Amino acid sequence: MDFRFTDEQDLLRKTARKFTDDEIVPNISKWDTEGKFDPVIWKRLADLGFMGVCIPEKYGGSGMDYNALAILCEELERGDTTFRTAVSVHTGLNSMSLLQWGTEEQKQKYLVPQAKGEKIGAFGLTEPGAGSDVAAMSSTAVRDGEHYVLNGQKTWISLCDQADHFLVFAYTDKAKKHHGITAFIVERTMPGISSKAIKNKYGIRAGNTGELFFENVRIPVENRLGEEGEGFKIAMASLDNGRFTVAAGAVGLIRACLEASVKYCHERETFGKPIGKHQLVQQMIANMEAGYQMSRLLVYRAGELKNRGVRNTRATSLAKWQACDFANQAADDAFQIHGAYGYSDDYPVARYLRNSKAPVIYEGTREIHTIMQAEYVLGYRQEKPLNKMLPAWTPGE
Ligand SMILES: Cc1cc2nc3c(=O)[nH]c(=O)nc-3n(C[C@H](O)[C@H](O)[C@H](O)COP(=O)(O)OP(=O)(O)OC[C@H]3O[C@@H](n4cnc5c(N)ncnc54)[C@H](O)[C@@H]3O)c2cc1C
């Protein structure tokens, strides 16, 4: 096992860290309060090649490996969860799915502009009546000649007002349950689509999340991703990639909590000494450090499996579950270490705590991942290769 990063990965980390320090950290408090961020930041993310990390060069990406994607997510979430969430849905859930399941035409038309950051991709799986229980969805797509007619509603969709392309899941045959769900590439400009932002969210306030409505949206057959009935499988494979980015981002959030807490421990004095000298405060710092190191190892282990092109649902789920739980706890402890000052926006820890909650819910709740891990251990669930695995990663390809 080699735990060293390559020169290219080191450079990516430096670039992403500088971007975070120069462009996110000075502005995030304002963006978080106002509930939006300057759209110019999208262009900056794209210009730096951040929207195509892990996508092969021939499809407009930078051809780096999965652990490079993890590095990017860790550094961005150290600034704010909003930006890592954007990479998770745009790259992890949407672009990577096009790479895995798309036809050559679909890759040229949708993946290439997404990898270059010219177009934004989002992921529409959740519905008002279907979150963890995906098969409870009620959206339908009915075949009509060379089109499908899509009707339904999605909710809690990240980038909902900003995305140009959506990967949407709907029933083409409800009687077949999981095997009756199909995936579609939907363009915002198709008539019958509307979206509405969810206001006053608890966290990730600088990012857009909302509802999507489809009313008789005519989708050309060539926009079907995969075969009819493959939608559930595609959604779960997409989540393998999305969850990896969420886990990597959580590592960055733990680091942000550690950095803020260590600084405050040295500054604040009680009972004649810096609070870092009190053992109960040290306990919280030690837990954060342990969570940080363990989460990182789980993330890079999942990344190594992905780089080899093998099924990694189990390792990715474990990394996502643990890293997000550690981050949620680290944010709570960082807040506690700051005492009353944690409550003010002079310090970032209240934002960290608010932001740490959504990742424990999206892309599989804590409970869903707990069940998955238990079922793997008990032998009730197995990992089998999919009919279309992403190939082993080859540098630059
Ligand atoms: C900020 C944010 C952004 C999001 N972005 C997207 C997006 O871009 N695209 C998208 O499709 N979705 C998105 N989501 C939705 C997210 O994926 C869902 O919220 C998530 O899957 C959980 O679904 P739910 O909220 O309906 O909870 P439910 O599934 O209703 O669960 C409610 C509670 O019951 C528990 N529970 C459910 N089933 C079981 C069980 N079998 N055993 C034990 N406990 C169980 C859950 O763990 C949870 O605690 C986003 C959510 C948030 C908060």
Structure description:
This protein folds into 3 domains: 7-120, Butyryl-Coa Dehydrogenase, subunit A, domain 1; 122-231, Butyryl-CoA Dehydrogenase, subunit A, domain 2 (Beta Barrel), CATH 2.40.110.10; 235-378, Butyryl-CoA Dehydrogenase, subunit A, domain 3 (Up-down Bundle), CATH 1.20.140.10. It is built from 11 helices and 10 strands. The protein has helices spanning 7-24, 28-34, 40-47, 66-79, 81-101, 104-115, 231-267, 279-307, 313-337, 349-361, 366-378; strands spanning 121-124, 140-144, 147-158, 165-171, 181-187, 193-197, 209-220, 224-225, 269-270, 273-274. The protein has a 4-stranded mixed beta sheet. A 4-stranded antiparallel beta sheet has the order 2-3-7-6, covered by helices on one side. It has a two-stranded antiparallel ribbon with strand order 9-10. A hairpin with a 2-residue loop joins strand 2 and strand 3. Helix 9 (313-337) runs antiparallel to helix 10. It is globular. Flavin-adenine dinucleotide binds at residues 89, 123-126, 131-133, 156-158, 204, 209, 358, 361-363, 365, 367-368, 371.
Brief rundown of the structure:
The chain is α+β, with helices and mostly antiparallel strands.
- The CATH superfamily of the largest domain appears as Butyryl-CoA Dehydrogenase, subunit A, domain 3
CATH fold label of the largest domain: Butyryl-CoA Dehydrogenase, subunit A, domain 3
Q: What's the total helix number?
A: 11
CATH architecture of the largest domain: Up-down Bundle
For the biggest β-sheet, the strand order reads 1-4-5-8
Small molecules (ligands, ions, cofactors) in the structure: flavin-adenine dinucleotide
CATH class category name of the largest domain: Mainly Alpha
- What is the 3D form? globular
- Mean of the pLDDT scores? 96
Strand content: 5-15%
Main sheet record = 4 strands, mixed
DSSP strand count: 10
In the predicted model, the low-confidence regions spanning at least 5 consecutive residues are none
- The topology string of helices and strands comes to HHHHHHEEEEEEEEHEEHHHH
Oligomer category: single chain
Compute the CA-based radius of gyration: 21 Å
